[in-house]
Amino acid sequence: MDPARATIGGLAEATRLVAAATRELDRDPVARAMLAETAARLRQPLRVALAGSIKAGKSTLLNALVGQSVAPTDATECTRVVTWYRNGQTPTVTAYSADNASANVVVRRGAGAHGLTFDMADLRWTPPGQHTVSHLEVQWPTAELAKTTIIDTPGTSSLSRDVSERTMALLTPADLDAAAMTVPGADAVVYLLRRLDATDVHFLEQLGAGSGALGVVGVVSRADEISAGRINALNSAREVATRFSTELERTGLCQAVIPVAGLLAFAAATLSQPEFVAFETLARLPAEHLELAMLSADRFARPDVVLPVAPMMRAQLLDRFGMFGVRMSVELVRSGVRDAAALARELSSRSGIDELRTVLDVQFGQRADQLKAHSALTTLDRVIRAHPGTSADALLPRIRELLSDVHGFAELRLLGHLRADELPLPPAELAELFRLIGGAGVAVHRRLGLPDDADEAALREQAMTAVRKWRARAKHPLIDKATATACLTAARSAEGALTQLTS
């Protein structure tokens, strides 16, 4: 690999350590199986789990991220089990039991926003017998799933304890009980919040204290419902996200919090021409007339309310866009949006999904090797400690050394802080700091702000200059503690780039 384009991570060493442990623990079938799964994980796409309380909007957000209706959003049995979404050549849904029996699941589509359902009423198991669904696997041909495996989890605050425990078992697996140990299910987590209460904080604390994922991003979900769906709902949601981010930053439980209107984002991705024509028609009405008809969602959809858009289409618009989305779409058309593609872009931008995609790319996608290596090393540490007294014990010091290097986590936390608040630094220095810690990409040349074709000597010189500059900046006598810590993080990032160039 060209060191100038390399990213800072430890996937190669994690792969080597897993292979070494496998050789030493090959006689133990449990350890061998876990290590084989860990080795396979290192070669697979990054795994990102969507977690949150019941009705937080996880499935809707998943559909918005994928840009297709692939996840049921109605409260059926499939929302009570963990569901894995992977890339595949043809759309298929398979149910699995704990003893690895499988059954094909029929996918049914209807009209409206909740038109996709997984029919699990009459499963035909292979091998035949009485089986209980453990999890579902969905294969769907999409570019998004080719890069990332997405895991939709049951609500963390379900009244059924076993339902919530499925999510906890996936994200915070058992530690040293060799019989109960499993490989952590996710490399990163997107946690959906409606409000920041004790249940949310407790879950995030469990995630941070256990052997869970390194990366956690929060989403203020269903952001369009804040302020009762008024046109300024997303501004209010952004204020809420900033407050949540500030509170969570103190605990180190979450690296960023983004407001997202998932329903609007999905509607934007799948906006049809008839829907655009309906918005155009509504936009031509006198504002007072339309506002009166939109006093409530029920009133807007009522057949006896006279509007030039049919009641069935109005009901569809409410179902797909929500009242906030309908108001926003009409306002955008009135302000000059002239076609469906332009409206889709505007709605997508305003929904928050574009910002979330950027955050997920910078904090998860471009750090996939680092996150996967962390998951593998965490599993490796647990497996070796659960099977003591073998020559694999000699690997533990290096494994723990790698796990103790939490600089990548410090970068993620600082990126989240910079999104919620600014440090007292000049704009040019803030931009440089943001770039150094991977905010514009984690490849070495992107961190250093040099062109793609910069030679290695120029990259090395720039990295050394950055190390000296940011270490000196951190020692400035008038700088506050938070800014000094940020400067040291930038210096450490520059040192990492330099190490990558010289290794």
UniProtKB/TrEMBL annotation:
This is Isoniazid-inducible protein iniC. Residues 48-174 form the Dynamin N-terminal domain. It comes from the Bacteria. It holds the Pfam family Dynamin_N. Coiled coil: none annotated. InterPro entries: Dynamin_N, P-loop_NTPase.
